[in-house]
Amino acid sequence: MAPPRGLGQLIAILLLALAPHLVAADCECGFVTHTSAAQKQARDSSGTSQLFFTNMLESKFFELKNISLDGTWRRQQYNVSARAGRGEYGKAFAVKNVYSLPGSGDGDSTASTGSSSHPADDGVALVVGSTLTNDAVPVAELDSARSDMVFGSYRAGMKLTPVNGTCAAFFWYFNDTQEIDMEFLSREFDPKKKVYPVNLVIQSEASLQAGFDASKTGTFKVVNLTFDPTAGFHEYRFDYLQDRVLFYADSQLLAEMSGSSVPTSPGHLILQHWSNGNPLWSGGPPEEDAIMTVSYVKAYFNSSDSDVQSSWNSSCQKALSKGSNETVCVVPDVTAANASTGGTFFNTSNPNDDKNGANRLGSTWAATTSALLLLLVLNCL
Ligand SMILES: *[C@@H]1O[C@H](CO)[C@@H](O)[C@H](O)[C@H]1NC(C)=O
Ligand SMILES: *[C@@H]1O[C@H](CO)[C@@H](O)[C@H](O)[C@H]1NC(C)=O
Ligand SMILES: *[C@@H]1O[C@H](CO)[C@@H](O)[C@H](O)[C@H]1NC(C)=O
Ligand SMILES: *[C@@H]1O[C@H](CO)[C@@H](O)[C@H](O)[C@H]1NC(C)=O
Ligand SMILES: *[C@@H]1O[C@H](CO)[C@@H](O)[C@H](O)[C@H]1NC(C)=O
Ligand SMILES: *[C@@H]1O[C@H](CO)[C@@H](O)[C@H](O)[C@H]1NC(C)=O
Ligand SMILES: *[C@@H]1O[C@H](CO)[C@@H](O)[C@H](O)[C@H]1NC(C)=O
Ligand SMILES: *[C@@H]1O[C@H](CO)[C@@H](O)[C@H](O)[C@H]1NC(C)=O
Ligand SMILES: *[C@@H]1O[C@H](CO)[C@@H](O)[C@H](O)[C@H]1NC(C)=O
Ligand SMILES: *[C@@H]1O[C@H](CO)[C@@H](O)[C@H](O)[C@H]1NC(C)=O
Which residues are the signal sequence here (predicted)? Predict the structure, then answer.
C-alpha cells in the first residue's frame, strides 16, 4: 500500500481538480484567492498567482438590520485626548456613531448596481460629527471580535464621505508597529481636478523611529484612485502575506510592499472614521456630519489559533473522506459593478470554525422555531 497522503498534497490535488465556479460548496478545506493580472506580469518570487487560506469571515452589512446584534463586530467607545492623538482636538469614539443604515435592508442584492431609483446605500455608517463636546470630535470605530487573523486577503466595500476634514480607514492591527492601513483623507479629494488619493501604509519600527510619520518610511505610498470613492461603493483590499503586502481597489493592484516592515503577528480588522483637526493628516473637524458607509467585509485568512487550525484540519479531513469534491472555494474578484453588495458570499458562518458554533446553532434554532411556528399556525387553521 502507498503511504497515506499528507494534507498538503491532498490540497494541491484538490486545487488542480477545481472546477471554475464552486459557489454552493461548503468550503471545508478553505479558500483560494487570486493575485491580479498586473501582478501576474510582475515577477512573483513564489511562482504562483494563487493563494490558499483556511478560514473566513464574511459580513453582509448591507442586509444587517442592527449592527449592535452582530457578535462578530464590536463598536468602540473610548476617548483620546488632543495631546495623545497628536491633534488639535480630542477624539470621542462612541458606539452611537456606528449604526446600521436602514436602506432597503431586505437583502435584495440584485437591485444594487444599475437602477438609480433604488440607490443602495445599505451598510454600516461610521459618522464623524461636526459638533464638538469638551473639545473632542465625535468619531467612530468598528473592530472585528476575533484577533487571530494572520496571513489573509482582507476586503471591504466602502463609500467615503465627500465632506472635507476626516480620515476614513480600513486596517489590520496588532500594535502600533505592526499595522497595515488603507487611509482616505477627504481633504485631499478634489472633485474639480478629479483627484482622489488613497494613502497606503505599513506602520513598523521604522515609523516609530520617525515619530509615526510613515511618510518618512519606505512603506508609505499615495496612489490616485481612478474613480470617485465618494460617489459609490468600491472594494478596498489588502493581502497580508508572509513576505509582502499587496493593496488593491476593485481587484486592481495599487501597490506592493515588502521587507522587514511586513508584520509577523496575528491581529484584528478595524474600520475607523475620525478627525482631530491635525492639518497635516485628517484636517477638519468637518463642517457638517460626515458619513462613511461600509457595505460588507470579506476576509479569507489563516488563523493563529491552534484550536481553529485543528478544527479546520478535522472538518477538511472529514469532508475529504466523505468524498466531497467541492471542499475548496475559489474567491471571485469584485469589480466596481458589484462592490455595493460584494457579489458572491460563501456562507454567513465559517464552516471550519468552532468559534462560530453559536452562529450556526443560532440559525438551526431559528429554523426549528420557524418550523414550530408554522406547525402552530397550521394547527390553528
Ligand atoms: C453553508 O453552510 C451550511 C452549514 O455548514 C451548509 O449546509 C450550506 O450548504 C452552506 N451553503 C453554502 C451556500 O455554502
Ligand atoms: C495558510 O495555511 C495553510 C495551511 O497551513 C497553508 O497551506 C497556506 O500556505 C497558508 N497560506 C498562506 C498565504 O500563507
Ligand atoms: C439595535 O439594538 C439595540 C440593542 O438591542 C437597541 O438598543 C437599538 O435601539 C437598536 N437599534 C436600531 C436602529 O434598531
Ligand atoms: C468621553 O468623554 C465624554 C465627554 O467629552 C464623556 O461624556 C464620556 O463618558 C467619555 N467616554 C469614555 C468612554 O470615557
Ligand atoms: C509590537 O509587537 C512586537 C512583537 O511583540 C514588539 O516587538 C514591538 O515592540 C511592539 N510594538 C509596540 C509599539 O508595542
Ligand atoms: C479642505 O480644507 C482645507 C482646509 O480648509 C483646505 O486647505 C483644502 O483645500 C480643502 N480641500 C478641498 C479639496 O477643498
Ligand atoms: C495625483 O494626481 C495629481 C493631479 O494629476 C498629481 O498632481 C499627483 O502627483 C498625483 N499623485 C500621485 C501619487 O500620482
Ligand atoms: C491533521 O489531521 C490528520 C488526521 O487527523 C493528522 O494526521 C495530521 O497530523 C493533522 N495535521 C495537522 C497539521 O494538524
Ligand atoms: C462532484 O461533482 C460532480 C460534478 O460537478 C457532481 O455531479 C457530484 O454530485 C459531486 N459529488 C459530490 C460528492 O459532491
Ligand atoms: C463581480 O462581477 C464580475 C463581473 O460581472 C464577476 O466576474 C465577478 O465574479 C463578480 N464578483 C463576485 C464576488 O461575485
Answer: 1-25
Tell me the domains of the chain and their CATH numbers.
5-380 (2.60.120.200)
Which residues sit with their C-beta closer than 6 Å to ligand 4? Answer: 77-79, 92, 133-134, 136
- What would the pLDDT profile of 98-148 be if each residue is shown by its tens digit? 999 975 444 444 333 333 333 468 999 999 999 999 999 999 999 999 999
What is this structure's pTM? 0.84
Q: Look up residue 293 and give its three cell numbers.
A: 458607509
Pocket residues: Cβ below 6 A from ligand 9: 323-326
Neighbours of 330 (CB within 10 A): 20
The DSSP string of 238-295 is EEE-SSEEEEEETTEEEEEEESTTS--S-BEEEEEEE----TTTT----SS-EEEEEE
List the beta strands (DSSP E) in the chain. 30-34, 50-53, 55-59, 73-75, 78-80, 90-93, 98-101, 123-128, 136-144, 149-159, 167-175, 178-185, 197-203, 220-224, 234-240, 244-249, 252-258, 268-274, 290-303, 328-330
Structure letter (DSSP) for residue 24: T
Given a cut of 80, is residue 19 above it in pLDDT?
Answer: no
3-class DSSP assignment, residue 163: coil
Indicate the SS3 state at residue 362.
helix
Poorest-pLDDT segment among 8-22, 24-38, 321-335: 8-22
**Ligand 2 site, CB within 6 A:** 51-54, 151, 241-242, 302
* Nearest-angstrom CA–CA distance, 79 and 93: 6
CA distances from 255 to 113, 249, 292 (A): 27, 10, 23
Burial (0-12, 13-18, 19+ Cβ within 10 Å), 131 = exposed
| pLDDT at residue 25 in the model | 60
Residue 175 CA, ligand 5 centroid: distance in Å? 6
The answer to whether the beta carbons of residues 275 and 286 sit under 8 Å apart is yes
